[in-house]
Write a structure and sequence with these properties.
The structure is a single chain. The chain is of the alpha/beta class. The protein contains 8 helices and 9 strands. It has a 5-stranded parallel β-sheet with strand order 7-6-5-8-9, with helices on both faces. The protein has a 4-stranded antiparallel β-sheet with strand order 1-2-3-4. It is globular, with a radius of gyration of 17 Å. It starts with a helix and ends with a helix.
């Protein structure tokens, strides 16, 4: 596991090294964040923070995003999103289970930690695996296993116990995600030493605010 300072720095620095590519369902594209984009986004987040939300900031630069065609951005490697991975950076060790492949940022993050021995990724979309799976298998070899399955239905092997599980299968931060999170907490209660969920705090805030 990484200490707090190193984990913060790693989350800020991590970026996708995937090239632009695509298939019939998905596209990986580069995009720019300008100074004006930063000011607009960060002002919105600051206002949300004042209202009880978490502040997620971006910096100008070139980034990578995953798009579900025709036009839905599922994730990116902006600092706003990579900082969401702080719980993973702090707690991952040993045998790690990650739900959601996406741009593979979570894989790259945990693989930097020598305490992480092996990572199993469960990804519901075979098309995502076809698009980027070989890229990560070539980078990490036997330390990485990618399985095409729905994490809500997939059953882990009976003889496997995970030191840490990270669940990141949702497109947006909203209260609707909490039902899935509750199901996964119950499902992995005895299978994992520790668990983390992307943007869980933001989902709880959304539930309190809008029900």
């Amino acid at each position: 596991m990484l200490d707090f300072g190193t984990a913060i720095d790693t989350c800020k620095e991590i970026k996708s090294d995937l090239p632009e590519c695509g298939n019939s369902l998905w596209s990986i594209e580069k995009f720019e964040i300008s100074n004006e984009d930063r000011e607009s986004f960060n002002l919105h987040e600051a206002i949300s923070g004042m209202q009880g939300g978490s502040i997620r900031c971006v910096e100008p630069g070139t980034y990578t995003r995953l798009i579900r065609l025709p036009s839905t951005t599922v994730m990116s490697d902006t600092t706003a999103e990579t900082r969401d991975l702080l719980p993973l950076a702090l707690d991952a060790k040993g045998e790690v289970l990650i739900a959601g492949l996406g741009l593979g940022i979570a894989i790259d993050l945990v693989m930097r930690d020598k305490d992480v021995k092996h990572v199993t990724v469960i990804e519901i979309s075979q098309e995502i695996i076809d698009l980027v799976g070989d890229h990560f298998k070539n980078k990490y070899g036997d330390r990485l296993t990618i399985i095409n399955a729905d994490i809500l239905e997939w059953k882990a092997p009976k003889d496997v116990h995970y030191d840490y599980c990270w669940f990141d299968i949702w497109d947006n931060i909203c209260s609707d995600n909490l039902k899935d999170m509750t199901k996964l907490k119950r499902k992995y209660a005895k299978k994992a030493e520790r668990k983390g969920f992307w943007a869980e705090a933001g989902c709880l805030i959304a539930k309190r605010r809008w029900g």
